[in-house]
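Practice record 12: protein with copper (II) ion.
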Amino acid sequence: MNTINNPLIFKTMKKIILSIAVLAVIGMTSCKNQTEEKEETTEEVNQIAMTETTFGVRGNCSMCKRTIEEAANSLEGVATASWDVDRKQIHVSYDKEVVDEMKIHKAIAASGYDTEQVAGDEEAYNTLPDCCKYDHEMEMNLAEPAEGEEGNHHEME
Ligand SMILES: [Cu+2]
């Protein structure tokens, strides 16, 4: 007797295959739900654990400070940005799941300011107030405050 041609076995096999397919769909749906829950938990953790970075950014004065910090803060994922006029350096705290360090460099460069990795956009630089047109050769990442009198942070001749 040939079992493959037995219609009863054929029907049973069909039922089994159908059951497996239904189970697979249910399994996929529940897996998806579990993944979503996991992602939400990870996000909560990351809101607490911020990445800190410090890098060089050229600039002259408090107006530069405002522009540079606003450029960094405009990015989603950046929590705080503070530029040090004496050290020509910015300290940024950000969520590395949302934004990466290169994006922060690029946002600051787009506002006209040189970072140690990305040159400032020339068009944006040209629209800066004269006092903010910093020297492109200026040293960045200074360990000690720049030389010169307090309050005079205009470009050196
Ligand atoms: Cu300025």
